[in-house]
């Protein structure tokens, strides 16, 4: 275990110890580490609010100053039950250990369903003592509490949480903390959080009228407002232009399909719980598609006869929907839908797999080179774990799996990608390469993906006739350069802090007449810019200049072109960039040149 | 009743009479008139096929030649039951007359559901005798059979049909006939049918790889192949370009919404049976949207505060889904989805309603003037029937209804539209103006619509602040210039017989090298055309020239540019238009000019 993990885990114990001091009747749940920190769940005997956090921190610091150790103890399960007789949640965990050999709620639920209780023959419970506080715990602590810096942790918030994360259980009180090895790291983290609160895409999306959530429409179903739709449409058009140049053909498929399709593809088995499904009035089981590949496979069957028809590259900004628990929903990044995928399926023979894979990477590089966030991204190559216990998860022929994994690894290494490798993380139909990014809170997320499919074509009976007139299954590359347009817009808003490049700005330049008498000139300038395909608007002089400029800055309009007496006389504008940057006086021709050049670069 | 209706109805009797001659045990269903003809349903005692139709026609002509009359009779219901004691379907109808006062299956089902049996106190049955044949019938016949021209009718086909159209009932044999007043009309009709069989959009859609239906995906869920998607995308882009010029703002909304939205809008009440609905795993009732207006209304609430924000014109190529019985599905014209609407909602105050309505008509004229089918279309103005019995259907204030109906009628008349008027056909929320067209079979269909909504804004609490700071509900214009893109493509394919204009042709010109040695030159020519944004492809010389040309003609490629020795030497091509039209030799520059000019006109 890494040292920082030990620190965080130790702090969870100290938090529980502190809580028992202010509320001796508190019942203890569990206290794991999480990204950047830890939490502990309690059933408290009295209500608390965040004002108590300072007191708890101070009690934790007292414990640290005493330089306590974490003394391991092993008790027979029966003895442990006696020890925790007043802690019902701990008792439940010990009982689970006895019955299922695990305290993992997921494993227990699976066991309960399959009625297989695989007893690991656990007879002892592991406990740790810190001063007068004893917890049921697998271990992983600092040796002495003095290893924890007094100024490098902080309790951050209190929230409700279901016991074991299951909404059928009772609601407990969860206290969160963050912790690092040094104060500097903590300060940086807290600063990042503060930034994230201003510049996370939900806040920006609202402030800039990008999207809205409507209570009547429902959770997880964002509506794109004109400015957001503009961005989405620009991105869709950009990708279409690129993909057509790369030889993709666009198709368009319905959002519904009957059961037969997903039975054939295997998605019903592997994806069932995330798919919206219902029976239509004629009794057919209908699904809302969670991905477009099975639809595209039907088009493959229609269009491909021989190897001469390969590679076939089908593309679609396909809209899919997936059920997510309401608790998991988050802005544009975790939605029920629409998820508009920048989706494509490339059908290829084995001989040309590496070439096609390389072409896909070329397109990735082209796009992410243009958009200025490639330095914040890295790739994650997910391979099957041939030795692991989840081996049965990977369908099909092991030799083929090994060949395909090797094929794409060779290309990825050859292209010198910034690469991490995840063993055992392949999809059910093949190895994959994901593009990763951190969101503004520092959490790792997948932005987009390239997946090799060596299983489904055979299962669905896709084939082509090779040179010898023999039936062969194609390999499918599933790829989404942009991932989903909605998610991408979320990340891009955060990454740019809402300062969108010109080509994604619905209004590129706002002509700002100082007074009523400059309005005519402003309208003329706007018309001239519009005629040059520059998206210009006029700010009506119905409020003071300062008020209007403040408003336009909040709206993050890229350029303000101010026109007063002098500018009107000179045939010019006083140009301001974002963040009050004075760019000086521009004659109209020079302004047009500057803006048009900037639009074309698709960069700024 | 029109004379032709009388002829058709009389022929239905003569058909039943003829069937009883060849199958005296046949049980008679019903025999109504339909568009262009009539049918009669039978339960036959022996199997028949279409070879029997000539015999039946001949028996019908015999009856006509006898110049029979249609003698009316009235019997007490009890007597009528005795008379039809061997005809169980007629008995069922008589019993329904006794119980429900009607034989309409729909009215009976409604009565059965609501348990209201509104007895019209019917005591007699109406029968008509023709020679030895007697039928239960409300009347409407020719006086004497000699009024029917022997050569102006034809029995066309035999099909299965559920008794009373209900799949829970038994399957009967339906014999169809067509009939006109003159042989000329019949011949024209049959010719049109023959054409329609070749050029209906389902046949063309398949032949030209426009769309496919996949059994696994399901009925009524067409998949657009690359060539079809190309057409749809071109149309969407064209409309976007136009609509942005007309001041529309694009938005993008999910295909799902929870129950609250459609309860608020009233659609749950009025549209419930056509909407796909289900419960999600968290127990929310979710709908797949059958239209986008309620979503747009939520955006209105977000964007509009005062009259200064009006008119707000929201547009979306919104994809909607509607449940249709599988029997009603038809190609792209009657689908479950996707129905990609060229949808827009214009929110306006009363003062500006007429202006906005006129602007919408202007956009209609602009589009349908460009597309060459406007001469085949006409408008249908649907107004409420203030005196009619369906008055309760029209929600809201009668004065407002009258005002709105008058307002759009004035504009429609002022614009000199080719207009028919339908009283009592308004939608539940206001009067509307539909654009009508005949499909290739001659059937009237609605292509697109403009609807005034004076009911839903109030119901949903939409408002703006007027000049006096008072809350006022806006009026909404729902309009779809193109209707749904899928339906439009269906009509347009039929209307052009698949000869799509250049701008909708995925391949505009095919370069056809006569032999292998001309391939390089062909590729060069294609590259030069591509560089000028002309979509050119090369036909590889892997088969004989004639075979390739035949294939390309079937594919309806607009231009073939053939290159042999002479053309290669001259730097030219031998150009052919559709239908083997020889256009002569074209130097490259002249070719480019010709094609580019044609693309720009968006006409041919």
Write up this protein.
The structure is a homodimer of 604-residue chains. The first copy, chain A, is an alpha+beta fold. Chain A is 37% helix and 24% strand. The first copy, chain A, has an eight-stranded mixed sheet, sandwiched between helices. In chain A, strands 1, 2, 3, 7 and 8 form a five-stranded antiparallel sheet that branches. Chain A starts with a helix and ends with a helix. The interface between A and B is large, with 57 and 57 residues.
Give a short summary of the structure.
Chain A has 604 residues and is of the alpha+beta class. Chain A has three domains: 2-198, Threonyl-trna Synthetase, Chain A, domain 2 (Threonyl-tRNA Synthetase, Chain A, domain 2, 2-Layer Sandwich), CATH 3.30.980; 231-496, BirA Bifunctional Protein, domain 2; 502-601, Anticodon-binding domain (Rossmann fold, 3-Layer(aba) Sandwich), CATH 3.40.50.800. The two termini of chain A are 43 Å apart.
Domain tally of chain A: 3
How large is the radius of gyration of chain A?
29 Å
Tally the helices of chain A: what do you get? Answer: 19
Main sheet record of chain A:
8 strands, mixed
Strand order of the largest sheet of chain A: 11-15-16-23-20-19-17-18
User: What is the CATH topology classification name of the largest domain in chain A?
Assistant: BirA Bifunctional Protein, domain 2
Cα(first) to Cα(last) distance of chain A is 43 Å
Architecture of the largest domain in chain A in CATH?
Answer: 2-Layer Sandwich
As a percent range, the share of helical residues of chain A equals: 25-40%
Identify the CATH class of the largest domain in chain A.
Answer: Alpha Beta
Note the beta-strand portion of chain A.
15-25%
Hey, which two chains have the biggest interface? A-B, 57 and 57 residues
Shape of chain A: globular
Low-confidence stretches of chain A: none
Oligomer: homodimer
Overall mean pLDDT of chain A = 92
Number of strands of chain A: 28
CATH homology superfamily of the largest domain in chain A: Bira Bifunctional Protein, Domain 2
